[in-house]
Amino acid sequence: MKKSFAVLGLGRFGRVVAEEMMASGADVLAVDRDEEKVRRLADIVTVAVQADVCNDEAMAKLGLKNMDGAVIAMSESVESSIMAIMTAKKAGIPAVWVKAMNETQKEIFLRIGADRVFIPEKEQGINVARSMLSGSFLDFVGLSERISMIKLPVRPEWVGRTLSELELRRNLKINVIAISRNGQVSQDIDPQEQLSADSVLFVIADRSGVENLLNPRG
Question: pLDDT tens across 183-213, in order?
Fold first, then answer.
């Protein structure tokens, strides 16, 4: 089942986050009060809506309670960011991440309930999208705009099977580069060794591989 995210604020940072989430296979609700910004994303994201986050009635119609997470990218307006955080938390969104312009804003946003606050550049926008999407990963590092290294716990259905049997490169388009067993990381990989529940895989994946991990097809 696809994950769903809301991106509130569609400046450069918010647009990058929304586009990266869509490219990785998520459903995205993009919101801004600027009609032109909404129009530019209308054909890219799942749903693009013109709305003022300070308008309770407009926000109530967005269905935020169904979202897996929200990225709030309106740090030029502290009032709008605060209202968006409060609305998202009230809707029960489990992960509310917020863009801030400085350390003062960051402290304010954390105090009123933001789960994580960034003071980002465009490249960090890409990493924020990937990190939020990767709730089932232990760690996620963007090596470039398209390639990432992921620290991936062994899935229950993989336990007792070998890498040779799983054929992860063919089936999921990911490459295992190392394995951690009992806290010890090794690049000496035996494709015939059965995976245990406490093993951790270090893998390299492009966007299609990330999408496959996020949206398993069985």
Answer: 788 888 999 999 999 889 999 888 788 777 7
The 3-class secondary structure across 147-167, one letter per residue, is CEEEEEECCHHHCCCEHHHHC
According to DSSP, the β-strands at 27-32 and 47-50 are parallel
Render pLDDT for 75-85 as a digit per residue (tens, 0 to 9). Answer: 678 899 999 99
Give, in order, the Cα–Cα distances in Å from 187 to each of 28, 180, 184, 210.
Answer: 37, 9, 10, 21
Structure tokens at 6: 């809301």
Whole-Å CA distances, 96 to 146, 188, 214: 25, 39, 19
Domains of the chain: 4-133 (3.40.50.720), 139-214 (3.30.70.1450)
Whole-Å CA distances, 87 to 81, 97, 104, 122, 154: 10, 13, 21, 26, 36
Q: Which residues, 6 or more positions from 42, have their beta carbon under 8 angstroms from its beta carbon?
A: 48
